[in-house]
Amino acid sequence: MAQQVSVKKVRKEIFEKELGYKDESNPFGDQKLTEKFTWKKKNEYLQAAGLYRPSSKDQDVSKMESKVREIHQVKKRRDEREVERSLLEAQRQDHDKEMHDEEYGEWLTKEEKFHLDNAKARTQLRIEQGRERPLDLVAKSLGIAGGEEFEEMTILDKPPHQLFVNLTLDEAEEVMDEISTFCRIDKDHLDFWK
Predict the structure, then answer these.
(1) Would you give the distance in Å from CA 183 to the centre of its chain?
(2) Concatenated DSSP letters for 138-178?
(3) How many domains does the chain have?
């Protein structure tokens, strides 16, 4: 009986020290967690067959220590897998972000091209319909100077800088927006527009 008591004590100490479990507080809700589980029927059959050999205190302690080492190895492998899983998740998120950024960049480029093509088409349409704005006429003059031909070859009747005389602040801001659009549309005459 003294051997059993000391094995129980060692077992309780190992559970508490190595695993942090007590009979009163453990994640399994087991009030007899530190007690050794014995298959009584199995031992009875082995004893009846003459094969039963009770284990010594040293064997029991060695077996417990072996199990604790195994538990620590399993925990270590689980922690390593968790780290690997989080690294893989971070890599996947980085990859997804890169793909999203790349797609977003392409989308922005396409959107910018779409807006510039529309601005160019609006300018052409206003010129073809004879309702040009003064800056459209400047663009038309640059096109004529570059060899383009229009149905109506009318160009400005005064120098371009005189278009800005007597403009209100709102009109001047609108003209600046149009000029910045022409800077992006008309790369051939970029120096002029700047």
Answers:
(1) 36
(2) HHHHHHHHTT---SS----SS-GGGGGTT--HHHHHHHHHH
(3) 1
What is the chain's pLDDT, residue by residue, as a tens digit (194 residues)?
Answer: 445 557 778 877 877 777 777 777 777 777 776 777 778 888 888 888 887 777 777 887 888 888 888 888 988 999 999 999 999 999 999 999 999 999 999 998 898 888 888 888 887 887 778 777 777 777 777 776 666 766 666 666 667 667 677 778 887 787 778 777 777 776 666 566 66
Residue 66 lies in a domain: no
Residue 169 forms part of a structural domain: yes
- Is 97 among the domain residues? yes
Question: What sections of 25-149 are H helices per DSSP?
Answer: 40-48, 57-128, 134-145
Cα 97–110–106 angle (5° rounding)?
Answer: 20
* Token couple for 148: 């383009």
Whether residue 9 lies inside any domain: the answer is no
Residue ranges making up the domain that contains 106 = 91-193
